[in-house]
């Protein structure tokens, strides 16, 4: 299957223009930036840095992606794209680029505000990018499952809480066994991985975290493709 | 001539409701076929099956020789243009930006935008934001988008339903030109005059079944009662039988200069639809 960069870029360009006029959705980027300002006075605490990073991934990446997909469905424009020669990878890549770029810009701004300087910038950037893929798939999936932007904005809230603040529940896992799943959330894995990188540990200690995050990416992507295929039909 | 669409014993059932039942028809290359029927008769369902948006429950349909299960491929999509009730536009963008996206998706030069906007009478409005357009203008932009890549086969679901008579006429002229250039058109409508103006053949769809399928002229002739109405100068309207008996009477009126008009009493497509199905087309 050939992928047309021209089509991907056309969808990206359209989304960029559209989102610049949609303050309801794009203003969400203020949330992590405000949090970054608030926490910047509390010192260089890794947990706080990753609270902001995870919040950015859950709010900016997943929420914006969810809202733009839900709006395409609500306004019947997604069907227009589906009936065009654009393929599934072209449509979903094109539609993910704006969320991805906004995420990167927000993360850089937040890290500058909080003064976070990772011990291994390349590795941390790679893991955050990998996590982004999960949040993009999650946002796309929820956008495809909901009918309107308003519905999508409500449905994504528990996910934003779970993936934005879920890692903060980890200290409670010993007391409440039911919260055991928190240890396997991609956000928790990202924090643990960051701690190990800061301690100078090598790939041998990191691979299990990477594998768990990758599993989340793969499962969310498969589910997204399945639901997308279902949405191509009216049955 | 080659068939672009071939449909055999097509059926579609939603839950316990039959939307299409044993529907069979062909559309030849360069032909305009009109599907006429009231709301809920199965017109949109047929278009959705033929464009790969719905799976048939049973039966077969082929478009350009491809079965309905293979209609998702890129080359097929380049050959068709689809305008249905679930076509949408990006409200915050201008008409131009909406069409530019589709130029890029179909790899069509942006110069084509002017051409299609001329066809739908919107040349001077391309900078207008879609959210500010009237329903009729939206319909015309959607039609322009459908025509942007010069599709060989057009599926048009009620293309002029929201338009005023002047714009409908303009669109009809454009569609006739496209048809003259070889574009095949599959059209659904409940507008009789649209069907008469555009269609080479019409199919009457009622309760999911094709009740009749033929050329509009042939249908009108077939269902005509062969009478002639003569309007006289004294205000009377006289219905005469066709043939020599009526001809003699008309000759008498004509020779005494009493005639205002003479009309053969052919039924409209709407009359025939009511005759066949017992209900109005709207």
From TrEMBL, chain A:
Localisation per UniProt entry: Membrane
InterPro entries in UniProt: ABC2_TM
Record's GO cellular component terms: membrane
Domain ABC-2 type transporter transmembrane residue range list: 61-225
Coiled-coil zones: none
Pfam family, one: ABC2_membrane_3
Membrane topology of the entry: Multi-pass membrane protein
Species of the source: Ornithinibacillus caprae
Molecular function GO terms recorded: ABC-type transporter activity
Entry keyword Endoplasmic reticulum: no
Keyword Membrane: yes
Keywords associated with the record: Membrane, Transmembrane, Transmembrane helix
Protein known as: ABC transporter permease subunit
TM segment ranges: 21-42, 48-70, 91-116, 122-145, 152-169, 206-228
TrEMBL record, chain B:
CDD domains: ABC_DR_subfamily_A
Origin: domain of life: Bacteria
GO MF assignments: ATP binding; ATP hydrolysis activity
Main location: membrane
Stretches assigned to the ABC transporter domain: 5-232
Keyword tags: ATP-binding, Cell membrane, Membrane, Nucleotide-binding, Translocase, Transport
GO cellular component, as recorded: plasma membrane
Location of the protein in the cell: Cell membrane
Annotated Pfam families: ABC_tran (PF00005)
PROSITE patterns named among the record's database cross-references: ABC_TRANSPORTER_1, ABC_TRANSPORTER_2
Classification via InterPro entries: AAA+_ATPase, ABC_transporter-like_ATP-bd, ABC_transporter-like_CS, ABC_transporter_ATP-binding, P-loop_NTPase
Descriptive protein name: ATP-binding cassette domain-containing protein
Source organism of this protein record: Ornithinibacillus caprae
Lineage of the species this protein comes from: Bacteria, Bacillati, Bacillota, Bacilli, Bacillales
């Amino acid at each position: 299957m050939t992928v047309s960069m021209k089509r991907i870029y056309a969808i990206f360009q359209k989304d960029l223009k559209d989102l610049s006029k949609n303050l309801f959705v794009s203003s969400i980027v203020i949330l992590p930036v405000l949090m970054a300002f608030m926490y910047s006075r509390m010192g260089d605490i890794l947990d706080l840095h990753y609270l902001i990073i995870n919040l950015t991934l859950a709010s900016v990446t997943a929420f914006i992606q969810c809202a733009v997909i839900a709006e395409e469905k609500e306004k019947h424009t997604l069907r227009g794209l589906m009936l065009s020669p654009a393929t599934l990878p072209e449509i979903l890549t094109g539609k993910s680029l704006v969320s991805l770029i906004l995420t990167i810009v927000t993360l850089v701004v937040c890290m500058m505000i909080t003064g976070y300087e990772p011990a291994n910038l390349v590795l941390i950037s790679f893991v955050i990018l990998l996590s982004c893929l999960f949040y993009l798939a999650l946002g796309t999936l929820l956008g495809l499952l909901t009918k309107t932007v308003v519905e999508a904005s409500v449905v994504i809230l528990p996910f934003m809480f779970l993936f934005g603040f879920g890692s903060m529940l980890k200290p409670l896992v010993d007391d409440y066994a039911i919260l055991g799943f928190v240890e396997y959330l991609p956000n928790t894995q990202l924090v643990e991985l960051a701690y190990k990188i800061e301690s100078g540990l090598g790939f041998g200690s990191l691979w299990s975290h990477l594998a768990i995050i990758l599993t989340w990416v793969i499962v969310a992507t498969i589910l997204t493709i399945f639901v997308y295929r279902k949405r191509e039909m009216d049955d | 001539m080659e068939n672009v669409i071939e449909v055999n014993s097509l059926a579609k059932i939603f839950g316990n409701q039959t939307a299409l039942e044993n529907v069979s028809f062909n559309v030849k290359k360069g032909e305009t076929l009109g599907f006429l029927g009231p709301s809920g008769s199965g017109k949109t369902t047929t278009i959705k099956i033929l464009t790969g948006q719905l799976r048939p429950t049973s039966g077969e349909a082929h478009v350009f020789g491809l079965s309905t299960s293979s209609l998702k491929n890129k080359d097929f999509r380049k050959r068709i243009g689809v305008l249905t009730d679930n076509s949408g536009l990006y409200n915050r963008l201008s008409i131009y930006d909406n069409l530019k996206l589709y130029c890029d998706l179909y790899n069509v030069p942006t110069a084509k935008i002017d051409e299609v906007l001329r066809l739908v009478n919107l040349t001077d409005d391309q900078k207008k934001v879609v959210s500010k357009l009237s329903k009729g203008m939206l319909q015309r932009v959607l039609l322009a988008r459908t025509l942007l890549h010069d599709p060989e086969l057009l599926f048009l679901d009620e293309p002029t339903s929201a338009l005023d008579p002047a714009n409908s006429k303009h669109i009809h002229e454009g569609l006739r030109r496209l048809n003259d250039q070889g574009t095949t058109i599959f059209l659904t409508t409940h507008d009789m005059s649209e069907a008469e103006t555009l269609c080479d053949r019409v199919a009457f769809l009622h309760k999911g079944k094709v009740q009749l399928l033929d050329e509009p002229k042939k249908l009108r002739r077939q269902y005509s009662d062969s009478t002639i109405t003569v309007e006289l100068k004294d205000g009377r309207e006289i219905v005469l039988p066709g043939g020599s008996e009526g001809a003699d009477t008309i000759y008498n009126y004509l020779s005494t200069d009493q005639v205002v008009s003479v009309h053969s009493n052919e039924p409209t497509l709407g009359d025939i639809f009511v005759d066949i199905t017992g209900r109005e087309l709207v």
